[in-house]
């Protein structure tokens, strides 16, 4: 399973280089290029997509929680270690959480979450890291995925929205 996940992650990363995003109807994998383009994908990448079609469909079909605006439970476990993220992932994660701050229940949940980190696991962390950990918890719960997968989904959502007319 771990090797399959690395393969799917690699496929998605490679497609990102060409500006191509993926979707599925549960049986077929659809590749979408930016409007007005027709990227030439390497034959070995196309073959890798074919070989890994079931894993790609499973990854794309993984059911999510209600998503945007859904309130995680108060007893959600805290992270034991701080999240280490690239600057781009930090920016996407903060934008994702900040975009939900107009929902009073989300804002309250994040405040309680940050206070819990400050009192326990994150007591020696920088305040910005505590905020990132809390935002990561929100993202992971709403997408029902581990952080690396949730960030990848978020990246694809941002990329897809940028290619919308």
Provide tags for this entry.
2 domains, single chain, 7 helices, 2 strands, 5% strand, 58% helix, two-stranded antiparallel sheet, mainly alpha, 165 residues
Question: Helix and strand layout, with pairings?
Answer:
Elements: H1 2-17, E1 21-24, E2 29-32, H2 43-51, H3 53-61, H4 87-98, H5 104-119, H6 127-143, H7 147-162
Helix pairs in contact: 4-6, 4-7, 5-6, 6-7
Distance between the termini: 37 Å
* SS content category: mainly alpha
The helix count comes to 7
Number of domain modules = 2
What is the typical, i.e. mean, pLDDT? 84
Number of strands: 2
The largest beta-sheet arranges its strands as 1-2
- List the uncertain runs: none
Global shape: elongated
Summary, kept brief:
By secondary structure, the chain is mainly α.
Can you describe this structure?
The protein has helices spanning 2-17, 43-51, 53-61, 87-98, 104-119, 127-143, 147-162, and strands spanning 21-24, 29-32. Helices cover 58% and strands 5% of the residues. It has two domains: 2-61, no CATH class; 87-162, no CATH class. With 165 residues, it is mainly alpha-helical. β1 and β2 form a beta hairpin. It has seven helices and two strands; from the N terminus they run αββαααααα. The model has no long low-confidence stretch (mean pLDDT 84). The protein has a two-stranded antiparallel ribbon with strand order 1-2.
